[in-house]
């Protein structure tokens, strides 16, 4: 979010023009808000987050299906010896449970998750 790559902004505008819903996980929303209090926190970040949130269609609630999918992903990744971070596991589980596409530039981590529908709009 801090970098605001032009390719992402163009793709986001294109998806909106095609009337695709733009939603984020409650976990992603929490991470965005945590950015307001971290070492790199700035008033500009707060404004960026607020503007982004106003433009999306919603924040998906963290529910039982998201938790169950997250636990299953964690089990699979631990068994394979390829775990990823806790928040990333939760975001992946939420994405799968919600039947959404995860847009991220963190392909290295998220590509370990079986059955995750993933797109990188930066590269």
UniProtKB/TrEMBL annotation:
<keyword id="KW-0255">Endonuclease</keyword>
<keyword id="KW-0378">Hydrolase</keyword>
<dbReference type="GO" id="GO:0004519">
    <property type="term" value="F:endonuclease activity"/>
</dbReference>
<dbReference type="Pfam" id="PF01850">
    <property type="entry name" value="PIN"/>
</dbReference>
<dbReference type="GO" id="GO:0046872">
    <property type="term" value="F:metal ion binding"/>
</dbReference>
<keyword id="KW-0460">Magnesium</keyword>
<feature type="domain" description="PIN">
    <location>
        <begin position="4"/>
        <end position="114"/>
    </location>
</feature>
<dbReference type="InterPro" id="IPR050556">
    <property type="entry name" value="Type_II_TA_system_RNase"/>
</dbReference>
<protein>
    <submittedName>
        <fullName>tRNA(fMet)-specific endonuclease VapC</fullName>
        <ecNumber>3.1.-.-</ecNumber>
    </submittedName>
</protein>
<keyword id="KW-1277">Toxin-antitoxin system</keyword>
<dbReference type="InterPro" id="IPR029060">
    <property type="entry name" value="PIN-like_dom_sf"/>
</dbReference>
<keyword id="KW-0540">Nuclease</keyword>
<comment type="similarity">
    <text>Belongs to the PINc/VapC protein family.</text>
</comment>
<keyword id="KW-0479">Metal-binding</keyword>
<dbReference type="GO" id="GO:0016787">
    <property type="term" value="F:hydrolase activity"/>
</dbReference>
<dbReference type="InterPro" id="IPR002716">
    <property type="entry name" value="PIN_dom"/>
</dbReference>
């Amino acid at each position: 979010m801090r970098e605001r790559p032009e390719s992402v902004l163009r793709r986001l505008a294109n998806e909106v023009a095609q009337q695709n819903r733009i939603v984020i996980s409650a976990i992603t929303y929490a991470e965005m808000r945590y950015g307001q209090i971290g070492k790199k926190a700035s008033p500009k970040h707060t404004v960026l987050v607020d503007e982004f949130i106003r433009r999306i269609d919603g924040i998906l609630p963290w529910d039982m299906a998201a938790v169950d999918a997250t636990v299953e992903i964690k089990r699979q990744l631990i068994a394979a010896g390829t775990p990823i971070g806790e928040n990333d596991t939760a975001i992946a589980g939420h994405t799968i449970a919600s039947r959404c596409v995860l847009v991220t530039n963190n392909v290295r981590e998220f590509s370990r998750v079986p059955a995750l529908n993933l797109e990188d709009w930066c590269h």
